[in-house]
């Protein structure tokens, strides 16, 4: 067993009103993948930011290969061989791939970049990752998310990084892309690098990680050098501090009349006219691979995108095309998938963000805001979803990723409305809160709303839904009642046709 | 959840947040204090009312510029609109022999330009900087055309609008200009609207993240249009009051007003990038600018130096603001 390569010694970090890290000490070996787990706001990203030199610690130090280091910026960290790959990738979309990979240390003579050498180096690095398909001259913005992630990894390799940390790398990847990433990470590990891996997905942890460290409320709970010796339940218990009961206890509900109906719907992202129905009291799951057209369908249903044909009926009344505000007023809400771009107002407070869409319901005396009522709902949801914030006045951008998502989810789920379209509702959300959200979804349905849940997480849709729609390449290809939920068959149906025939 | 402790660890808003609001107020008090001590004739009632009167045009426009900046837009056309509204109001009032019609014409023409700005920016999605730069020139041109290139003298009746309210005070009385009263009223109204109304919060949301605001069902285009229309209407009103006070409609009036107004807002802490702003920020910013201006006038500092000083203050303010937001 190799000796520890990287060590954290009493690391602390405080922000006004928040202790993000509190005397965290543990060590990690090279040649292994070290998982970092904990609830939303436990301090995982903060730890990685300190490691990357993006933020200084308030106390404590980082020891790299026996030497205490004190990075004063990410450039210093990169030079020392430490690279962190954040969930929001830090690439310049307008620049070609090779310039992004060698950003900051391009081969040059007298200040002039040697493009030939640069292209060659970039191609080498991409090849090392098995990504020969990416053209070093291509504009980076044109690549898919998974490809951009690979470019980001190549960038780390270009600095000869000995330590590479990933912060929730798979949250927006398809199953296939995740497999690819896992392969690459295994390769990096076998080459003797020290890898950190932050995720909320248990199955990934058991698949790729060798060791695990658990944080709770900024404190170090445990480090297990051998992950295989710890059970899943034990991990969850250490993260959450209590037992989490069976997250899906599906009980049959009273299914009523049709609430939302799409007839011959056509528009961006759909390859042929689509019909579907969801009833009062029903949870309808939408499964498919990333890019199957599920998000596009939701956007057509709620009027963010203008439909080219067909109708959408809510309780039998047609909804106007392309008018979100009208849909919301009629009682149909859509919780978007890309919460960074479409959800949060970064510099507004948690309360402000939570009530952005419910104002028209809560206002008093015509045009004025019911602040008491708003404060009450904010308190309620903060407790229910375990949103970690020093107060409702905190700017949302200062919350951890998962907590931001909880706030935005609360914006849409603080109902009462007739139809909820939830697009990847639990992305980036910890296990404990996830169970809470499932419960909330079931309550909404039980109260007579119709809920559509879009998710790439198969166990999640299977656990929640009464009925499942499978989409593939912009078309609805199957509709299954709960009794016909067979994971293998569903995965097979969701796979694009060409791929199926090839394999 | 296990987070009772974490969620409620600090239920009170940290003190420094109050300070941030307070810091500009303190600066403002300091600046005024210094002016009172070091500038002869500053600490008098007469000076105070005079200063308020000179500030009133900037003050009125700050109210709506606050909305404009908060929604992430700009309006550079206000200086020209003030001039155009003044000339049109005087011309119409003279021609029709009716003060009321004149006022309507002035305010109306301002509203129309606001409507034009707003529709182009909101519905055609043209950059507000370019749009209002264009209408700024066009409105100035129209002002000259309307007045036939000359200043137009207002009637006695019309000039009454530029009068003032006399309040008995000790042995004598103090007079507060009508435009000062209008400014105060607008500050209260727009302050309440920004902070407590759905419209005001929508404007801030729009400036904070337009896409998120749209998906939350906020009528983004309509809101933006409204902001520009309000700005135009207030600019029109300011133009009328200015013309009444000066007893002329002057097409050359208030060149560069837009910069003074934006400066005052930014000085107080309204973000140029949108999404952040409060009526208090505007009040402090405006008072600081007004005090410095008045002090320089009383000290008979040359106009060239005045430019240099106001420019430096603005630069200092935005640099300080940058550091403050870094700390936050
Ligand atoms: N700049 C900041 N100002 C104030 N508080 C902050 C700041 N950055 C982080 N925090 C707080 O520090 C805590 C830890 O945040 P961190 O992002 O490390 O959590 P995390 O473990 O990565 O959570 P998630 O799983 O949601 O990503 C959170 O409560 C967050 O609100
Ligand atoms: Mg995080």
Describe the structure.
Helices cover 34% and strands 25% of the residues of chain A. Chain A is built from 19 helices and 22 strands. The two termini of chain A are 39 Å apart. The model of chain A has no long low-confidence stretch (mean pLDDT 87). Chain A is an alpha/beta fold. Chain A has a six-stranded mixed sheet with strand order 6-9-10-3-11-12, with helices on both faces. Chain B is built from 14 helices and four strands. Mean pLDDT of chain B is 88; it is low at 1-11. In chain B, the strands form two sheets. A two-stranded antiparallel ribbon of chain B has the order 1-4. In chain B, strands 2-3 form a two-stranded antiparallel ribbon. Chain B starts with a helix and ends with a helix. Helix content of chain B is 73%, strand content 5%. Chain B has 328 residues and is mainly alpha-helical. The site of adenosine-5'-triphosphate has 18 residues of chain A, from β2, α1 and α15.
Low-pLDDT residue spans of chain B:
1-11
Radius of gyration of chain B: 21 Å
Shape of chain A: globular
Mean pLDDT of chain B: 88
Query: What Rg of chain A is obtained from the alpha carbons, in whole angstroms?
Result: 24 Å
Number of strands of chain B: 4
Would you identify the CATH H-level superfamily of the largest domain in chain A?
Answer: P-loop containing nucleotide triphosphate hydrolases
Q: What can be said about the biggest beta sheet of chain A?
A: 6 strands, mixed
List keywords for this structure.
heterodimer; A: 503 residues; alpha/beta; Rossmann fold; 3 domains; six-stranded mixed β-sheet; globular; B: 328 residues; mainly alpha; ABC transporter involved in vitamin B12 uptake, BtuC; two-stranded antiparallel sheet; 14 helices; 4 strands; 73% helix; disordered N terminus; binds adenosine-5'-triphosphate
């Amino acid at each position: 067993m190799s000796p520890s390569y990287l060590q954290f010694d009493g690391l602390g970090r405080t922000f006004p009103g928040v202790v993000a890290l509190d005397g965290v000490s543990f060590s990690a070996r090279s040649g292994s993948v070290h998982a970092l787990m904990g609830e939303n706001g436990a301090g995982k990203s903060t730890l990685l930011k300190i490691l990357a030199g993006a933020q200084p610690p308030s106390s404590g130090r980082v020891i790299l290969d026996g030497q205490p280091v004190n990075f004063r910026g990410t450039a210093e960290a990169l030079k020392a061989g430490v690279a962190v790959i954040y969930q929001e990738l830090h690439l310049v979309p307008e620049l070609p791939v090779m310039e992004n990979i060698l950003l900051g240390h391009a081969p040059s003579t007298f200040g002039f970049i040697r493009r030939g050498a640069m292209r060659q180096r970039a191609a080498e690095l991409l090849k090392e990752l098995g990504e020969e398909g990416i053209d070093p001259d291509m504009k980076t913005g044109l690549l898919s998310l998974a490809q951009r992630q690979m470019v980001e990894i190549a960038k780390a390799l270009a600095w000869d990084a000995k330590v590479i940390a990933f912060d929730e790398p798979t949250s927006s990847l398809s199953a296939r892309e995740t497999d690819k990433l896992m392969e690459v990470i295994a390769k990096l590990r076998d080459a003797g690098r020290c890898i950190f891996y932050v995720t909320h997905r248990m199955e990934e942890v058991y698949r790729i990680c060798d060791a695990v460290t658990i944080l709770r409320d900024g404190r170090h709970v445990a480090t297990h050098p051998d992950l295989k010796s710890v059970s899943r339940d034990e991990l969850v218990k250490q993260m959450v501090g209590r037992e989490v009961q069976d997250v899906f206890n599906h009980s049959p509900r009273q299914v009523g009349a049709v609430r939302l109906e799409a007839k011959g719907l056509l528009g961006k992202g759909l390859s042929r006219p689509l019909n579907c129905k969801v009833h009062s009291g029903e949870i309808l799951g939408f499964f498919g691979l990333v890019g199957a057209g599920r998000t596009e369908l939701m956007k057509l249903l709620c009027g963010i995108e203008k439909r080219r044909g067909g109708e959408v009926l809510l309780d039998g009344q047609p909804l106007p095309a392309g008018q979100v505000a009208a849909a919301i007023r009629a009682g149909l809400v859509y919780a978007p998938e890309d919460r960074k771009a479409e959800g949060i107002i970064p510099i507004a407070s948690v309360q402000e963000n939570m009530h952005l869409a419910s104002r028209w319901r809560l206002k008093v005396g015509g045009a004025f805001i019911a602040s008491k009522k708003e404060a009450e709902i904010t308190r309620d949801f903060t407790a229910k979803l375990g949103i970690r914030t020093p107060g409702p006045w905190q700017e949302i951008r200062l919350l951890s990723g998962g907590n931001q998502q909880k706030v935005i989810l609360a914006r849409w789920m603080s109902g009462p409305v007739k139809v909820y379209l939830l697009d990847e509702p639990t992305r980036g959300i910890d296990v404990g809160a996830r169970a809470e959200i499932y419960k909330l979804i079931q309550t909404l349905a039980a109260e007579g709303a119709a809920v559509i849940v879009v998710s790439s997480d198969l166990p999640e849709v299977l656990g929640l839904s009464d009925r499942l729609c499978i989409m593939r390449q912009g078309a609805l290809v199957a509709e299954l009642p709960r009794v016909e939920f067979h994971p293998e068959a569903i995965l097979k149906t969701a796979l694009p046709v060409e791929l199926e025939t090839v394999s | 959840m296990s987070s009772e402790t974490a969620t409620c660890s600090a239920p009170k808003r940290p003190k420094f947040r109050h300070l941030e609001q307070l810091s500009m107020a303190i600066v403002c008090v300091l600046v005024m204090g210094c002016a009172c001590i070091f500038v002869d004739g500053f600490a008098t009632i007469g000076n105070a009312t005079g200063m308020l009167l000179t500030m009133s045009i900037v003050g009125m426009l700050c109210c709506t510029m606050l909305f404009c900046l908060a929604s992430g837009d700009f309006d550079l056309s206000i200086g020209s609109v003030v001039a155009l509204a003044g000339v049109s109001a005087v011309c119409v009032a003279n021609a029709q022999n009716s003060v009321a019609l004149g006022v309507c014409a002035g305010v109306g023409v301002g509203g129309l330009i606001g409507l034009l700005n707003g529709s182009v920016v909101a519905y055609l999605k043209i950059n507000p900087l370019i749009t209002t730069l264009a209408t700024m020139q066009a409105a100035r041109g129209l002002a000259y055309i309307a007045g036939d290139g000359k200043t137009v003298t207002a009637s006695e009746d019309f000039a009454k609008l530029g009068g003032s309210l006399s309040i008995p005070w000790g042995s004598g009385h103090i007079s507060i200009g009508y435009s000062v009263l209008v400014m105060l009223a607008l500050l209260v109204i727009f302050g309440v609207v920004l902070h407590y109304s759905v419209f005001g919060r929508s404007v801030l949301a729009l400036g904070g993240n337009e896409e998120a605001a749209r998906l939350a069902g906020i009528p983004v285009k309509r809101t933006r249009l409204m902001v520009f229309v309000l700005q135009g209407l207030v600019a029109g009103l300011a133009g009328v009051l200015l013309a009444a006070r000066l007893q002329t409609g002057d097409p050359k009036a208030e060149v560069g007003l837009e910069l003074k107004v934006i400066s005052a807002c930014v000085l107080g802490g309204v973000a140029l990038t949108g999404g952040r702003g409060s009526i208090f920020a505007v009040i402090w910013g405006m008072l600081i600018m007004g005090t410095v201006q008045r002090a320089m006038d009383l000290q008979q500092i040359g106009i060239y130096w005045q430019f240099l000083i106001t420019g430096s203050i603005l630069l200092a303010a935005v640099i300080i603001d940058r550091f403050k937001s870094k700390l936050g």
